Task: structure prediction
Amino acid sequence: MNNFNWDTSFLVDFDLHTGESKTSEVTKRYLSQMKNMFSDTEAVEKILENEDPVIYEFHELGFPEEAGHIAFGTSIVHPGTIGNEYYMTKGHFHTILETAEVYYTLSGEGYMVMENPEGDTMEVPLRKGEVIYVPKRYAHRSVNTGNIPLVMFFSFGAEAGHDYGTIETKGYHKLIVEENGKSAIVDNPHWK
Amino acid sequence: MNNFNWDTSFLVDFDLHTGESKTSEVTKRYLSQMKNMFSDTEAVEKILENEDPVIYEFHELGFPEEAGHIAFGTSIVHPGTIGNEYYMTKGHFHTILETAEVYYTLSGEGYMVMENPEGDTMEVPLRKGEVIYVPKRYAHRSVNTGNIPLVMFFSFGAEAGHDYGTIETKGYHKLIVEENGKSAIVDNPHWK
Result:
């Protein structure tokens, strides 16, 4: 948590097109940190021999994980593929499952890939100028299927917390891959 | 509450510049509905003899007032003055005082005018591309001091609720007025 006092008002800049922010902290996720999340592990290893690309980044403030506060920030998923799988975020459940989240797409296109603990899945296309509602109980991952960064502004109840471990262990039921130059939703052959 | 099922995912369009939305409902606030909120009641009556201008509007979905959901939408405050006081929203406390709100300015400029039940006041300038954090316990009103609409995307915990009555009865401690072609923060002579 940084120096902002969440009991008073403050301002944070987020560029309405790029999502960049001078005020908040940036966290970058490199391919080496997501090795086991992409389906084509051979493609991952081959890329990592030469470089370690940034897959996505987010700009946010540290925030108090307490009910009544609203956490917010931007996420930027870069364009690209690993094998035939598009760049994406790790994705996570909320620790408090019964909490929703709102994402407003500022630029780019892609999919929000969601699933709940019962295994129900949803893949919803993302377009600039649309808000997607991620309902309670659904893990969510954003996938960039376009040629420019997928930029979204997000907000959620600050008490929600993040559970990345479940997805890291089990993966998602569905993958978004490039087939004949177009995006396609396919079953994950490695789902556990 | 409209037809959206908040237990599943859905998409809502909000123009990133104008705040307009085809998917959600629009609510317009006319001057006749805000008669007693502007300081210069003679100016109000004079305008209403000829016309009843829209002061502001908001686009949102009806939403379940329950913890875990996130309510969201856009507000559009039109440019103009009543006497020397700029167009503004009614402003409100949350019924559950201990809940914050986030506003992301998409277009225009102005002030967020805030005060808590103890009478502490804050007036924070709004600029395109900045998020303002409205902390727990603070009533909030947005004021358009520019020549174009002040457009903001907002989100808050859906359980928060709205208390408009306190502000309608008591007013705000501070007003934002035009003085010599510039905006100024002054004490409200009518505050009760």
